[in-house]
Amino acid sequence: MNTIITIGRQFGSGGREIGEKLAQHFDIKFYDKELLSRAAKESGFCEEMMHSHDERPTNSFLYNLVMDTYSFGYNSSSFVDMPISHKVFLAQFDTIKKIANEGPCVIVGRCADYALNDYQNCLNVFIHADEASKVKRIMNKYSDITTEQKAKDMMNKKDKSRQSYYNYYSSKKWGRADSYDLSINSGILGIDGTVKLLAQYIEAFEARQ
Hints:
CATH class: Alpha Beta
Structural class: alpha/beta
Number of helices: 10
Largest sheet: 5 strands, parallel
Distance between the termini: 10 Å
Strand order of the largest sheet: 2-3-1-4-5
Shape: globular
């Protein structure tokens, strides 16, 4: 096994659980919130700072300057004046590359597919689902979400944030099929069915490497 799997996901689609089960299936490492802890440790940022800016965009700064600063490194003068949200993004960007260099793994969210754009052994997946499936899952998971409308509101807010973050920092469009290698509706197959299908796809991908 040599493949790095990145997973983009709609809120309520089960993307995290699917990622966890895939990692278990192939006996490889899994990163979601774990990535934030490691990025905090390696960058010197406190973990609370990482979580407060996690997958949340800001429109106060130019994308090009962020990428220029990344190219020049943390010692450039523009990095000093950069908003904290961009420093957090760059810290995550660095950590994602380090994780990928260590071997096969599953990484959920955080523009990992964009960060690893040059990696030939990277397979990028997007998990989505129909609204009814997502609402049911959200209500089962969160005890304080007691109505379908609350579930829909939470779902829309989270997805809007993820979409804005992805579209802002990457050169691709969040959720659009041509931004990924594979897009799957988990509402049709369920969590285990989606994991099974993905495992077969990954094995076929491995065979071609």
